[in-house]
Design a protein that fits this description.
This protein has 453 residues and is α/β, with parallel strands linked by helices. The chain is built from nine helices and 41 strands. It is 19% helix and 29% strand.
Length: 453
């Protein structure tokens, strides 16, 4: 599209009281700025300029470099910020879309509508407005007797009568490039903030007889985020959006408001999410899976028909029909093959559990490769760390690990082999053999009776 996008991301956000720049504050696991940039990308702009300022190093690090950024070294207001972009416009003469980097709920279709109206009517500017229940802190849109936009007054500079106006400025504009910068050259900082307001461009354009239009959007969509409370409000709206989108795609949420999602989570049709779940990062939930209650899944893949309850999965893969939990921790690098089980109070780290194999309860498996059809008895662990290095345990197909077996790595248990309960296995166990390591039991008749006396 023949358009330049300017994103204002230089503000300090003092009300956040944070070491993190305001535009990098997360909503549903992603920085607010990411949502704004994604929405702008849907327009396929000819050029994108991001104005950075306060703690710009952090913003540049997140962006992956300074390409397309403009450094506002002194934060002297939004008008000054946009003025800083003029040298980067080159020969461009089309429309300029200006918006803030702290409006994560803005939808691409709304931006497209704004630009379409501009392209149809060719005003000097078109502004996005809304009518929220509580307009406090927002600039008010003041209209003349004919209902035409006349000017915008900021909350701190508004009179009591102006504050009574419900229509607010969303901080999103589409300007004619030439008339924008001509007007910016005339703005003054005669206000309580001693800043150069971009909003003053509207009054300047109107004083010159130019046309300024307005398009009204949903109030939730243009919610600016300047405080922790407003961040929480944006989070609540975003969570509702994410859940609705997934439900529209065929997922079931039981008590949806109890599930937390991040923006990149994908859930296939007929999966069921029970109450009290946290699904984060690049997590993928397969068709017909049943998640929860009480599951936290981070950057993991859960296959079709799998079940996960009261468990934590982090950076792992659970294939189709896997059964996990309750009270189970699956750590990074783990793969549970189809039909495997990781049961109650089991921890698995950087291991592969083969098809149909079971680690039912009270076990730790680390740095191991377990074949198909293996049963690991209760209380068994792989002793993978010698104090300096990690070592591998291999359990081949069909082996049976007796309860309370200590597998002291590096060690291999052959296919079909059995370890006796309570054994400490320090040497390889050949296929189809029995390995037992424990001292001979001694019985002292009458000892307990004598002790009681």
């Amino acid at each position: 599209m023949n358009i330049v996008v300017i994103v204002l991301a230089a503000g300090e956000g003092t009300r956040m009281k944070s070491d993190l720049p305001k535009v990098l504050q997360p909503v549903a696991g992603r920085p607010m700025l990411a949502y704004v940039l994604d929405a702008c990308e849907q327009l396929s702009p000819e050029r994108r300029l991001i104005v950075v300022g306060h703690k710009h190093e952090q913003v540049l690090a997140w962006l992956g470099g300074d390409a397309g950024t403009v450094h506002q070294r002194e934060q002297r207001g939004t008008g000054h910020a946009v003025l800083m972009t003029e040298p980067f416009m080159g020969e461009f003469e089309g429309p300029v879309l200006v918006l803030a980097g702290d409006i994560p709920l803005i939808e691409p279709d709304t931006l497209k509508t704004l630009v379409d109206i501009y392209n149809r009517d060719r005003p000097a500017a078109i502004i996005l407005t809304a009518v929220p229940e509580d307009p406090f802190s927002y600039g008010r849109v003041l209209r003349d007797e004919a209902g035409v936009v006349d000017r915008i007054v900021e909350e701190k500079d508004a009179t009591a009568g102006e504050k009574a106006v419900k229509e607010i400025n969303a901080g999103i504009y589409c300007f004619d490039r030439r008339r924008l910068y001509d007007a910016l050259a005339s703005i003054k900082n005669e206000n309580r903030q001693s800043e150069f307001y971009l909003t003053d461009v509207v009054a300047i354009l109107r004083s010159r007889g130019e046309t300024v239009l307005a398009h009204q959007a949903d109030a939730d969509e243009i919610m600016g985020v300047n405080s922790r409370a407003e961040l929480a409000g944006a989070e609540a709206v975003m969570q509702g959006r994410l859940r609705r989108r997934l439900m529209d795609n065929g997922a079931t949420f039981v008590l949806p408001e109890t599930t937390y999602l991040t923006a990149d989570v994908q859930i296939e049709p007929d999966a069921t999410i029970l109450p009290g779940c946290w699904l984060e990062g690049k997590t993928r939930i397969g068709r017909g899976a049943r998640i929860g209650p009480g599951a936290r899944i981070i950057d993991s893949v859960v296959g079709a028909g799998a079940t996960v309850q009261y468990a934590v999965l982090n950076d792992c893969v659970a294939e189709e029909e896997v059964d996990i939990g309750p009270y189970c921790s699956i750590r990074p690098g783990t793969v549970l093959r189809r039909g495997a089980k990781a049961g109650t109070f089991v921890e698995i780290k950087k291991s592969e559990i083969g098809k149909g194999s079971k680690v039912p309860h009270l076990s730790y498996i680390g740095d191991a490769v377990i074949g198909e059809g293996v049963n690991v008895g209760a209380g068994s662990i792989t002793c993978n760390y010698d104090g300096a290095h990690k070592h591998r345990t291999i359990i081949e197909d069909g082996a049976f690990i007796g309860s309370d077996t200590m597998l002291i790595a590096p060690v291999r248990v052959g296919s079909g082999a059995v370890t006796g309960a309570g054994s400490s296995i320090t040497k390889d166990v050949p296929p189809d053999s029995l390995a037992v390591e424990r001292s001979e039991q001694k019985v002292v008749p009458g000892w307990a009776k004598k002790r009681r006396k």
